[in-house]
Amino acid sequence: MADEYSERKLEQQRVDWTIQQIDAQIKKTQAALDSAHKETRAVEKNFGENASINRYEVDDIAESRSELEQQRQLVARTVENETILRHQLQTLQQLRESPYFGRIDILDPGEKEPESLYIGTASLMNDDKTDFIVYDWRAPISGIYYNGTLGKVQYQTPAGTQSTTLVKKRQFTIKDGQIINMFDTNETVGDQMLQEALGHQNDQYMQNIVATIQKEQNDIIRDTKSDLLLVQGVAGSGKTSAILQRIAYLLYHSRTALNADQIVLFSPNLLFSHYISDVLPSLGERNMRQVTLEGFLRRRFEGLNVESLFERYETRSQNPAISLDIANYLEGTDCMHQVKAYLEFLQQHPDAICFTDLNFRQQPFFSAEHIQAIYQAQPAAMTIADRLLKTKNALIKELKSRIQNVAKSDWIAKELNDQDVIGLHNLYGQKTIDDFADEDEQYAYLSYQLAKKRLRIVYDAIYNNYFIDFNSQYEKFLQQLSRPAAVKKSDWQSMLFGYRQQLEYHRIALMHTAPLMYLRDLMSGSGQNRAFQYVFIDEMQDYSLAMLIYLKHAFPKARFTILGDSEQALFKPLQLPGQLLQQLNDALAFKHPNLIELKRSYRSTMEITDFAKSLLPDGDQIISFTRHGAKPRLITAADSADAAAALLQQAAILHERYATIAVLTKDRAQAKQVYQTLHRQFKSIVHLLDNQDSVLPVGIVVLPIYLAKGLEFDAAIAWNVSDQNLPAERAVGLIYTMASRAMHELTLISAGPVSSVIDQNAIQLLETTKS
Ligand SMILES: Nc1ncnc2c1ncn2[C@@H]1O[C@H](COP(=O)(O)OP(=O)(O)OP(=O)(O)O)[C@@H](O)[C@H]1O
Q1: Confidence of residue 574 (pLDDT cuts 50, 70, 90)
Q2: Mean pLDDT score across all residues of the chain
Q3: Residue 755 Cα, ligand 1 centroid: separation in angstroms?
Q4: Most informative mutation of 209, 232, 282 for ligand 1 (most atoms within 8 A of CB)
Q5: N or C terminus: which one in the chain shows less Cβ crowding within 10 Å?
Q6: CA–CA gap between residue 435 and residue 438 (Å, rounded)
């Protein structure tokens, strides 16, 4: 058997040979791309010239259109061809840097010699396309690399389960074509390689983890059977990483049936969206769509200002009196059931539907009573949605018949008289004066056109269901609900009053959004989006059950992957993972749910994770990854002035060592104060981040913890973990989330006695100083 040195030499030769192959293919592809580019330019130029000739010189419009269409298709084809080549070139260039990261030797049944397969971020075939030089990490056979230990193994292929024997598994780190590190392993993916991957300094973008995907993560990535994949993973366990690789995997396996636009990810904030935006492109895939809950609601409530999770959190921390029990009720499963029950009620009581006048020129054009009568004339056995649709059609029909009358009105005559040349020209449309027999006909035509144009606004209102006042309907729904036992009558009354009052100011509280949207959709039979095949929801602990139920309803064709960590609850008291999973499963009732728990935490050093987990009631379940670093520091200052001095000193020390340092605070107000303190000393190195920011700068960043969700930093300073500063019921979630953002170093600063959540056990894991 060859010794380690000559093995490595042989492997380097294989790398060199692969790179030669890649270089040859790059050359060919580049030449093909150049000529494709020339062709596109020529076709586009031709198209441009033809298009302009057609517009001015050719009379036969139909013929000209079909010619244009042919040309357009030609342009589209050449552009597509060019895009494919460009993509191939990019993949080859990426592979050139690091052609692969793994090798498996397998011995198929009946074979004498094992076969070596190399695994990388994309596949590479030899010139005559008969053999794979590198297998894509998503190919069926590559599953063995992530899942199998040496010996008999099975892997899934489209043709069914296959068996083989895994005789060797080797991992590589290759940089700029040179093997930096290489070793054989019996495990799934050895710790040594992970150590290396995790020890790096952070940069502004999340990295892909293909080379070191762990077995449980691989289960998430390759799950194609479940309609609900629920991932509860402790902080830093690779949930976000795993789902991004999962998206790449799904795209690879359903190339023809799925594209990136049919996948949507609900991400916690804009910073996060930016942070993860490089992972899919680094795997040669297009990014999926991303939306924040805030953005989603903004679109669904146009014209209203929807309270965001952050706003609610900020107001709650200043005004804890707002009844949590009410929010819990409105955001729970029962309330959504009540919406359905209310719909039954409306089915039986058509007179309870809140129709509203459709006004035109400050007068009711269709009165609510009239609309109500049309609705009631529809067969009672129909669903509400169908009856409303019939009503809508009847209104549109009536509107059309009334255009004639309006056209004869005095005000139309006056407006027509006042039209300038352009206005008249627009009213004529395709017609010319020659098309009319006499002036009366011409006048009637123009009046009709003008009336139609003016009444467009009524048409749109009908089309958009503005003849039903859903906000008032929801208010009626609230009024008929039985008040939950835990809620005081006066609180319930003030919630009802508050709802109406907020509407007057065009505002709506977050807790009302899910039941209101649900009611509106069920009544109108609209609001569902069938185009999406996959919905991913990150940080599930921040979504109410009602919102998740609503999202399931809103994306009826989609499979859901919902992930989060019940113990990073910032906005509500902490829940045990088991409780949350049970609740979700019950509430969402999918047919093929799959629950995966990730317990190993990768992000932080062992010292940081050990401290973070000591805060949790069931923290001993978390497995720290063995990567050592300094003990986290706790500085207990006598007062805020001393705490500020400690902050300046710590920031200076950490800034010497690391590129990104985050100072994490409880809320926005404290982030501002901290920023001002730091800014005096560090000037432009320090940045205050808020809800609207989408780019994470390097240096020292100050942000409230809820904006740091899903992010990580080389070092983190948890600002003011004193008993006085942190609300008792949320202190665990807050400190846990702050601590788990740090990769290499963590400092906690407390102005006054430290929160009792950091008990004696936790203190022992810290380096403590008083200042
Ligand atoms: N298999 C892996 N190989 C290499 N790095 C990994 C692996 N799994 C996770 N990591 C790294 O661990 C860190 C945490 O991963 P990620 O952000 O995906 O975790 P998370 O569970 O979403 O965390 P949180 O809930 O705390 O936001 C990242 O730096 C990620 O690159």
Answers
A1: low
A2: 89
A3: 28
A4: 209
A5: N
A6: 9
Look up residue 622 and give its two tokens: 């978390």
Tell which one of 201, 205, 240, 696 to mutate to probe ligand 1, the residue whose CB is within 8 A of the most ligand atoms.
240
Closest CA to 281 of 247, 239, 233, 315: 247
Strand pairing category for 559-564 and 228-233: parallel
Predicted local confidence at residue 55, as pLDDT = 42
Alpha-carbon span 103 to 291, nearest angstrom? 38
Ligand 1 atom closest to the Cα of residue 710 is 27
Question: What is the distance in A from the centroid of ligand 1 to the CA of 546?
Answer: 28
Query: Which one is predicted more confidently, 283 or 243?
Result: 243
The C-alpha atoms of residue 299 and residue 286 are separated, in whole angstroms, by 24
For the stretch 741-751, pLDDT in tens is 999 999 999 99
State phi, psi for 157 to the nearest 5 degrees.
-130, 165
Give the strand pairing for 713-719 and 767-770: unpaired
Q: Judge contact between 123 and 135, C-beta under 8 A.
A: yes
Closest CA to 188 of 152, 143, 220, 223: 143
Distances (CA, A) of 164 to 134, 141, 188, 317: 19, 10, 16, 59
Q: What is the pLDDT of residues 596-624, one digit of tens each?
A: 999 999 999 999 999 999 999 889 999 99
The token duo for 760 is: 């004696």
Q: Of all residues in the chain, what percent carry a pLDDT higher than 70?
A: 93
pLDDT at 54 over 50: no
CB 157 within 8 A of CB 151: no
* Cα 85 off chain centre by: 30
Residue 206: phi and psi, rounded to 5, are: -70, 145
**Length reported for the chain:** 771
ipTM, 2 dp: 0.99
The pLDDT tens digits of the residues spanning 391-435 come to 999 999 999 999 999 999 999 999 888 888 888 888 988 888 888
Is 240 annotated as belonging to a binding site?
Answer: yes
CA quadruple 419, 424, 427, 432: dihedral, nearest 10: 160
Distance in angstroms (rounded) separating the CA atoms of residues 452 and 464 = 18
- Separation CA 348–CA 350 (nearest Å): 6
CA distance 121 to 470: 50
Q: In this structure, which residue's CA is closest to atom 12 in ligand 1? A: 603
Given the DSSP bridges, would you call strands 160-175 and 151-157 parallel, antiparallel or unpaired? antiparallel
The per-residue pLDDT for range 277-316, each reduced to its tens digit, is 989 988 888 899 999 999 999 999 999 999 998 888 777 6
Task: Tell me, in angstroms, the distance from the centre of ligand 1 to residue 237's CA.
Answer: 5
Number of DSSP helices (H) and strands (E) in the chain, helices first:
27, 26
Ligand 1 centroid from CA 591, angstroms: 29
The DSSP annotation for 532-583 comes to: -SEEEES-GGGS-HHHHHHHHHHSTT-EEEEEE-GGG-SSS----HHHHHHH
Residue labelled with tokens 């629920």: 230
pTM score: 0.87
Q: How far is CA 215 from the centre of its chain?
A: 24
Please tell me the residue having the least CA distance from ligand 1 atom 29.
Answer: 603
